[in-house]
Task: inverse folding
């Protein structure tokens, strides 16, 4: 599979730009036409461009992860009830309210009735159905256990989404607090302080040091805000350039792992994604080499992913997975110990899922501890800043009484 960029138009003539994975340009054209788009031009994406297995571009805009999760759950229930696969998807297409997803389901149904396998139909829409999803379905079809595989996929997607939602919800309040507090301080520096500076300058007296410092900061912010904006833009541009190369992403990911508290959470989150993905793929019947290659791509941290890539070669040589993982020193000792037990008992897939569940709880606890420090810290910083502003103004006002008339 290669990553292609494309320009296309929809039925209304609107220009759509995006990127899509496909076997070749012909397969990409078929995928675009299947979605009702008319391809204008196609080209290969630049080397090193990052692909998010769970993201959506203009081609599938409006199709959320919950749409795919609900589809998986309902399809599993219909198959367990004894309905044929094509009939089940046809029914789900009729019930689907999302027009874009409905078109995809219609095309999948046509493909099934045309003799294609379910996995082959799903492969045409890699930005809706991830590599994990397609590979698991392929293994389920080969083993004749599609219903069970769909049930595992549903749980996998729900658990993955729950972890993302928990992190987003936990960070929402500190982010809101920072934005509101920072905006309030900025408004004071830009609009409130300058009014007082006019009064103080008219007196002609010498103002207290804190007041002079405050006025200097206010004048600097009001007069040179464009410098700060330019530095912020330059930093964003620099990070974007670094993110555009694989080495740059490795450097950024490695740097994030060194941040106190946050680095621990990111490492555990990577272990969770790897363990849950690998466990789900192994339960679906995928060979361990292929499953490892897919699971490493989903870790979300290229620094850790590079460290554990040699594990694949270790498995090929018959060393198992736990021993090569231990040699990389990328996974926590407890995780390696649990995987060793899983290999010894022949229940590696179950141990991987259990490991992911354990680290899910650890991540939730770590986030709560981080917020327990972060929220009071933000409030304290805001209180110190606002307190400094108020005290500086009060000192200046009191100093007016000491000035000779």
Result:
């Amino acid at each position: 599979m290669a990553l292609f960029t494309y320009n296309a138009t929809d039925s209304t003539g609107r220009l759509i730009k995006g990127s899509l994975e496909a076997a070749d340009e012909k397969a990409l054209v078929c995928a675009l036409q299947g979605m009702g788009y008319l391809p204008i031009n196609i080209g290969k994406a630049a080397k090193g461009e990052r692909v998010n297995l769970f993201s959506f571009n203009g081609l599938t805009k409006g199709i959320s992860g919950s749409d795919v999760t609900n589809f998986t759950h309902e399809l599993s229930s219909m198959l367990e009830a004894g309905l044929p696969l094509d009939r089940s998807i046809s029914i789900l297409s009729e019930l689907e309210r999302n027009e874009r997803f409905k078109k995809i389901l219609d095309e999948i149904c046509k493909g099934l009735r045309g003799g294609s396998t379910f996995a082959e139909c799903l492969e045409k829409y890699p930005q809706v159905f991830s590599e994990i999803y397609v590979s698991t379905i392929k293994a389920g079809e080969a083993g004749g256990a599609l219903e069970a595989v769909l049930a595992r996929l549903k749980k996998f997607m729900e658990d993955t989404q729950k972890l993302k939602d928990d992190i987003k919800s936990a960070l929402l309040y500190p982010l809101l607090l920072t934005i509101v507090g920072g905006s309030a301080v900025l408004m004071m520096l830009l609009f409130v302080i300058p009014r007082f500076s006019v009064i103080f300058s008219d007196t002609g007296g010498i103002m207290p040091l804190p007041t002079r410092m405050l006025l200097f900061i206010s004048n600097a912010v009001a007069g040179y805000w464009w410098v700060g904006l330019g530095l912020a833009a330059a930093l964003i541009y620099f990070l974007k350039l670094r993110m555009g190369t694989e080495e740059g992403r490795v450097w950024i990911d490695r740097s994030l792992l060194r941040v106190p508290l946050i680095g621990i959470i990111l490492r555990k989150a990577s272990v969770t994604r790897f363990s849950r993905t690998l466990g789900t793929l192994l339960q679906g019947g995928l060979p361990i080499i292929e499953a490892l290659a897919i699971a490493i791509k989903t870790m979300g941290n290229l620094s850790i992913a590079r460290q554990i890539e040699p594990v694949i070669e270790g498995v090929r040589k018959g060393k198992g997975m736990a021993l090569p993982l231990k040699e990389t020193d990328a996974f926590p000792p407890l995780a390696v110990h649990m995987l060793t037990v899983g290999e010894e008992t022949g229940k590696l897939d179950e141990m991987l899922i259990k490991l992911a569940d354990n680290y899910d709880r650890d991540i939730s606890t770590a986030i709560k501890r981080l917020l327990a420090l972060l929220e009071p810290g933000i409030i304290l910083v805001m209180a110190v800043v606002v307190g400094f502003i108020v005290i500086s103004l009060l000192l200046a006002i009191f100093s007016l009484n000491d000035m000779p008339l």
About this structure: The radius of gyration is 28 Å. The CA atoms of residues 278 and 295 lie 5 Å apart. Residues 146-203 form the longest helix (58 residues).
